[in-house]
Amino acid sequence: MAYNVKEIMAEKPSRFKAGHRMCAGCGAPPVARMVLRALKPEDHAVICTATGCMEVSTFMYPYTSWSDSFIHTAFECAGATLSGAEAAYRSLKKQGKLPENKEIKFIAFGGDGGTYDIGLQSLSGAMERGHDMVYVCGAYMNTGIQRSSATPHFADTTTSPAGTKIPGKMQKRKDLTEIIASHHIPYAAQSIATANFKDLYEKAEKAIYTEGAAFLNVLAPCPRGWGYPTDDLMQINKLAVETCYWPLYEVENGKYKINYKPANKLPVEEFLKPQRRFKHLFKPGNEWMIEEFQKEVDERWESLLKLEEITNRENG
């Protein structure tokens, strides 16, 4: 029988339950739901999230949306907390204090502030030490809609407001997927919250069941911070991919593979236009910002194409 991902996804019960308090049109809940669907039904998971939107909206004692074990930790500590839990599990199993046939998987969910910025040190440490865990960065919104190093160039935020003197955030977006891939971990990948659930499911499954440290960077839009209608979540994700602002790719044992190459690459303004945080880019006289943004996207896409070519050539 052929392997049918859609049928497998549909048959599995959701381990991330309804009734959470996340905003309508938020990308984070679909990410959590699909990542956890990739778990085998017989396996248990320990979930860790740092303080942020997902934590306060999904685990308000005594209510929880998580079917598996859940740890809430401080803003900067998701990588350290989960790697400690994973180390304790391995020790207990070695001592014979846990059943041999009981598999427990360790998955962290973090937002941009707790991953790209304040939590980068503990994430880097967990990846470098090679803990058997998956870290999912899947919610691009600092509480209060501040800028972070994940925030794109020129975006209007509460701490990088677009005005007459400064046109939004003046720094380019940090490429965290490349930073984590350079830790030489077995698996790192980029995906999106919606518009391609098959891609996210397959990458989550691979990350969870690859021995050692794994990282998933999943574009999870925020309607409040990005300023789009709640029913446009899927369209925003699709435009991010079709413009190559957010390429779908994976790095497996150092080998790059681009999972989707648009037949007709759209101009990045198609991705920027529906978002309120970029409305100032379309005012007369600000065309240079769109041109600079496009140049940055093109350069990163070309660099990724070269990495795929080089690593495929080196690895046969």
Could you explain how this protein is built, in words?
This protein has 316 residues and is an alpha/beta fold. It has one domain: Thiamin diphosphate (ThDP)-binding fold, Pyr/PP domains (Rossmann fold, 3-Layer(aba) Sandwich), CATH 3.40.50.970. Helices cover 38% and strands 16% of the residues. It has 12 helices and 10 strands. Strands 4-1-5-6-8-7-9-10 form an 8-stranded mixed sheet, with helices on both faces. The two termini are 30 Å apart. The mean pLDDT is 93.
Low-confidence stretches: none
CATH topology: Rossmann fold
H/E element string? Answer: HHEHEEEHEHHEHEHEHHEEHH
Q: What is the count of DSSP helices, taking H or I runs of 4+ residues?
A: 12
Helix content: 25-40%
Distance between the termini: 30 Å
How many structurally independent domains? 1
Query: What's the mean pLDDT score?
Result: 93
Q: What is the CATH H-level superfamily?
A: Thiamin diphosphate (ThDP)-binding fold, Pyr/PP domains
What's the level 1 CATH class? Alpha Beta
**Percentage beta strand:** 15-25%
Rg, nearest Å: 19 Å
Structural class: alpha/beta
Please give the order of strands in the largest beta sheet.
4-1-5-6-8-7-9-10
Largest sheet: 8 strands, mixed
